[in-house]
């Protein structure tokens, strides 16, 4: 009965069911189901696009955060859509490379033979990107412009801190 179908829906789903008219509850349900499937497929397509073509950060200090965001989105896709959503190694590497800018991008490209797996590239990039983020945050806290090439911020104590932070993060 259409009354039951209308009572059990709300929002866009309800308007889809109501558009079919009296006595057409099953037709209303089929229209609602088709609409839901299409909108869900659009969401899945959008997620795939965001995973395969992530937004490239503008600055080197944004790379670590961009990688973590990408990995979180990728995990969510696999959890939601199952194992068929998992990317093979070359695809993951390609997506990771889209997140690189500046010197680390050049480093990875020049040393393709050394960094063969996603994990190899990720480890190298994250160590480098975290140091850039720390450097940027330290300079920002001191009121130093990251574009000030005449100013150096590292002294022995700061280098020791950075080394210790990276050591603790990566073991």
What is the secondary structure topology, with strand pairs?
Elements (H helix, E strand, L loop, with lengths): L1 H6 L3 H8 L6 H28 L10 H19 L7 H9 L4 H9 L7 H25 L13 H15 L1
Salient structural properties:
elongated, 171 residues, single chain, 8 helices, mainly alpha
What can you tell me about this protein's structure?
This protein is an all-alpha fold. It is 70% helix and 0% strand. It contains eight helices and no strands. α2 packs across α3 and α3 runs antiparallel to α4. The termini are far apart. About 3% of the residues have low confidence.
Beta-strand content estimate: under 5%
Alpha carbon gyration radius = 25 Å
Written as H for each helix and E for each strand, in order along the chain, the element string is: HHHHHHHH
Shape: elongated
Kindly summarize this structure in a few lines.
70% of the residues lie in helices and 0% in strands.
């Amino acid at each position: 009965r259409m009354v039951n179908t209308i009572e059990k829906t709300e929002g866009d789903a309800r308007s889809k069911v109501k558009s079919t008219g009296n006595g057409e509850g099953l037709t209303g349900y089929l229209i609602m189901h088709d609409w839901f499937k299409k909108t869900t497929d659009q969401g899945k397509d959008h997620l795939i696009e965001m995973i395969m073509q992530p937004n490239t950060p503008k600055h080197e200090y944004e790379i670590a955060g961009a990688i973590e965001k990408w990995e979180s989105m990728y995990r969510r896709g696999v959890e939601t859509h199952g194992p068929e959503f998992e990317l093979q190694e070359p695809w993951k590497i390609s997506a990771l490379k889209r997140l690189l800018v500046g010197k680390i991008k050049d480093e990875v490209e020049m040393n393709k033979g050394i960094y063969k797996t996603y994990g190899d590239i990720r480890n190298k990039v994250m160590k480098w990107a975290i140091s850039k983020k720390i450097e940027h945050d330290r300079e920002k806290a001191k009121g130093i412009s990251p574009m000030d090439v005449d100013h150096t911020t590292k002294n022995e104590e700061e280098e020791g801190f950075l080394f210790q932070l990276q050591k603790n993060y990566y073991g």
